[in-house]
Design brief:
single chain; 12 helices; elongated; 504 residues; 10-stranded mixed beta sheet; Aminopeptidase; Peptidase M28; M28_fam; Glucose Oxidase, domain 1
Length: 504
């Protein structure tokens, strides 16, 4: 296992080192007096569609190349965001008086020296054949084809000491996404065949699996990511789960072929960063508590081109959340609340909620001082009058009090028609478990997510600034701000739900 430590370019480090002193010097200037009253009105007028659109085009355009977590593109975008925050005038609340909280993510992937072949067909790992987990593994064995692997087909074949090829088949239950079902069936079927003596298993995509192969294949090419010490970053020495494209069916069933596999793994660290800022509260006691506004700045970066476009901009996912938080900062700067407003841009969300997992474990404010988390995730697409508030129904609701405040803010402001289907435990996408509110909710901190949910351009190069509904995004921002403003000014913190327990 090769361990390497990659650090940002010297010029980027120089830029980061300058940001904190600039912010610190800004804090030394005499501040305008703040009217310390609990009856002050909100600053909703400070949230402007023109500001949101400008910021989103800057962050979600091609300049930052999709802001892939753990790359210089993510770090450059993070520096840009910190500069916008400094210009707005919020205090740095990261490490060592800066806006930044650095952390490492660990990447484990197959080396370029890894090789696979079936007969005369040379297969590039994670290009011509998907390997679902990096593994050190070598085998040279005869390949037998068993169709879809039914009981009657398997009865005709002795798989002991052989590699087995079969076509994936099956349909998930209503409450499971096909991608998750595909992974589960491949894992369970492989284990069953290995127990029968097979030394390797190769699946061939059917029509539905082919759609997963085409849409998500670039994920496996990059390997696995986690925080150092995570179970999924550990190098294993077991037979891989492999998936071939649908086009392989014609030749994979030819008799007399050998499967040759020689996979090798490397693992190394990348830097990523959370961006943290604060608008102190006005109340002598309540300012010690924080309402945390959450989002993430990363997306998928530069990947396989689709219709000639290789930049996965992530305009909705999640430049919308980034622009929304900047707008909310302007409102809190214009009119501070009784509690402090804390803003956290989480790095490497697309790698597995890594930034929010890190910050929730090592917050730069006392953990017990965080009274609520309001998370912005994809807020600018789909029907102009519909939205969703995840964490609003059981078993995901961990504070009826916070949810009631958010619902009241919706009625008083944008008045969206709320879609509760995406928040149900039975929803096949499991959307509640896929954004940065989750690590905080697992700690019992009242948390909700504001979203306009998935769409056809999700995680494709078509998710671009020109496709965002800016009036809707502005209304989503207003809703999030009005909720946070109410929580930040009430005397009692949102009550936590007794007996809260997530289904997984």
């Amino acid at each position: 296992m090769k361990k390497l430590l990659y650090q940002p370019a010297a010029w980027l480090l120089a830029g980061l080192s300058l940001a904190a002193p600039l912010a610190a010097s800004a804090q030394k200037k005499p501040a305008a007096p703040v009217r310390k009253t609990t009856s002050a009105g909100n600053a909703l007028s400070a949230i402007k569609e023109s500001d949101i659109k400008r910021d989103l085009y800057a962050l979600g355009g091609d300049h930052f190349r999709g802001r892939e977590g753990g790359t210089l593109d993510e770090l450059k975008a993070s520096v840009w965001l910190a500069e916008q925050i400094r210009a707005i005038g919020l205090q740095p609340a990261g490490d060592d008086g800066t806006y930044f909280q650095w952390f490492h993510l660990q990447r484990t992937r197959l080396t370029k020296a890894s090789r696979m072949s079936i007969g005369t067909h040379q297969l590039r790992p994670n290009q011509d054949a998907l390997v679902f987990a990096p593994t050190n593994f070598s085998v040279n064995a005869p390949l037998v084809y068993v169709g879809t692997g039914t009981t009657s087909e398997m009865a005709k074949v002795d798989v002991k000491g052989k590699a087995v090829a079969l076509v994936f088949s099956g349909n998930p239950a209503a409450d499971m996404s096909f991608r998750r079902y595909l992974t589960q069936v491949m894992r369970d079927k492989s284990a069953e065949l290995m127990k029968a003596g097979a030394v390797a298993v190769v699946f061939v995509s059917d029509a539905r699996a082919q759609a997963v192969y085409e849409h998500w294949g670039h994920i496996y090419e990059r390997g696995r990511y986690g925080l150092p010490g995570d179970a999924n970053t550990k190098v294993v020495d077991t037979a891989p789960i492999m998936l071939l494209p649908q086009s392989a069916k014609d030749w994979v069933q030819q008799a007399g072929q050998q499967l040759t596999v020689d996979l090798k793994v490397e693992s190394f660290l990348y830097p990523s960063v959370n961006i943290v800022a604060k608008m102190p509260g006005t109340d002598a006691q309540l300012k010690k508590e924080h309402v945390l506004f959450s989002t993430h700045q990363d997306h998928d970066g530069v990947r396989a081109a689709v219709a000639g476009d290789s930049i996965y901009n992530g305009a909705d996912d999640n430049a919308t959340g980034c622009a929304a938080l900047l707008a909310i900062m302007r409102a809190f700067k214009q009119q501070p609340a009784r509690r402090s407003a804390l803003f956290v841009y989480h790095g490497a969300e697309e790698r597995g909620l890594l930034g929010s997992r890190y910050y929730s474990d090592k917050p730069t404010v006392p953990k017990e001082s965080i009274v609520a988390v309001l998370n912005a995730e994809m807020m600018g697409r789909n029907d102009p009058d519909s939205a969703a508030l995840l964490g609003s129904i059981a078993p995901h609701r961990n504070s009826s009090d916070l949810v009631s405040t958010a619902l009241a803010a919706n009625q008083a402001g944008p008045n969206f028609k709320l879609d509760t289907e995406w928040d149900k435990a039975t929803h096949p996408e499991g959307w509640y478990f896929r954004s940065d509110h989750l690590p905080y909710a697992r700690l019992g901190i009242p948390a909700v997510m504001y979203t306009s949910v998935l769409h056809a351009d999700y995680h494709t190069p078509r998710d671009e600034p020109g496709r965002i509904d800016y009036p809707k995004l502005t209304r989503m921002t207003n809703w999030m701000y009005l909720t946070g403003w109410a929580v930040a000014n009430r005397t009692a913190a949102p009550a936590r739900e007794p007996g809260f327990k997530l289904e997984r």
